[in-house]
Write a structure and sequence with these properties.
Elements (H helix, E strand, L loop, with lengths): L4 E6 L2 E5 L21 E2 L2 H7 L5 H4 L1 E3 L2 E4 L1 E3 L11 E3 L9 H6 L4 H5 L2 E6 L2 E6 L1 H6 L14 H4 L17
Parallel strand pairs: 2-9
Antiparallel strand pairs: 1-2, 3-5, 4-5, 6-7, 8-9
């Protein structure tokens, strides 16, 4: 892609950006689409989560992967079509982990980006599903390329395979 460029996100941590550098993103009120899915946990996230939640209640194992599942919610808003949302998504549409502990799993930070590993390093692009469902793309002045450190925590460079869009 002609827009590809190498960007240093953290000292010594670079990515190849494969999306339009003019793209902006800002979460918008009441859009919790990304929170209606389970969250696959990288190993460091699993251990960090243990400091903030009871893992036996907040996580499950599926095909050898730890993740935060969705659960049935007794409400009409901030749920998927099936009435489910992330274990940590509160009734007001906010994340209890982020609000109460100023922390969230790396995959949550990454959204709406997709991280892939290629021969020349980590690549980031916009998830296909985000183009279809995310209301926060191109609605603000906050350029994604200028704020990559907010989306891409340093832990991504410490993991063998930080690919973010994994189907289970």
């Amino acid at each position: 892609m002609s827009d590809s460029r190498r960007v240093e996100v953290h000292p010594g941590c670079e990515v190849v950006v494969d999306f339009d550098p003019e793209l902006t993103f800002e979460c918008v009120d009441d859009c919790t689409w990304c929170c209606t899915h389970g969250v696959l946990l990288y190993e460091p996230d699993f251990f960090e989560l243990a400091k903030h939640a009871d893992l036996s209640e907040a996580t499950t194992d599926f095909r050898g992967h730890d993740f935060v599942p969705t659960e049935e919610k007794d409400r009409e808003e901030h749920v998927d079509e099936d009435g489910r949302a992330c274990y940590f998504l509160r009734e007001d549409g906010l994340c209890s982990l982020h609000l109460e502990h100023d922390w969230k799993p790396a995959r949550c930070s990454v959204f709406p980006l997709a991280v892939t590993v290629e021969d020349d390093g980590l690549h980031v692009d916009i998830r296909d599903s985000a183009h279809e469902h995310c209301e926060g793309l191109d609605v603000s002045e906050r350029k994604v390329i200028d704020n990559l450190d907010a989306f891409l925590p340093e832990v991504l460079w410490e993991i063998d395979d930080p690919t973010s869009d994994v189907a289970l």
